[in-house]
Design goal:
Length: 66
């Protein structure tokens, strides 16, 4: 969804692009409305025990608050 004004949204088709290294904050990934042509694929390893790794403190569920 893209915002086109105050409270107005329009559906859009967006594509992820990279040169094969969109795997971190410093990676080469970008988002665009242009379809990919001949780009190398990126891989993502999903860990069900740690589904959304964060830098620093865990943000969900069974983390104790201090």
């Amino acid at each position: 969804m893209r915002m086109i004004g105050l409270g107005h949204r329009v559906a859009s088709l967006d594509f992820l692009h990279s040169a094969g290294k969109a795997n971190s904050l410093g990676g080469d990934g970008s988002l665009s409305t242009a379809a990919p042509r001949s780009e190398p694929s990126d891989r993502y390893l999903y860990d069900p025990a740690n589904p959304a790794p964060t830098v620093g403190w865990p943000l969900c569920c069974d983390a104790p608050f201090t």
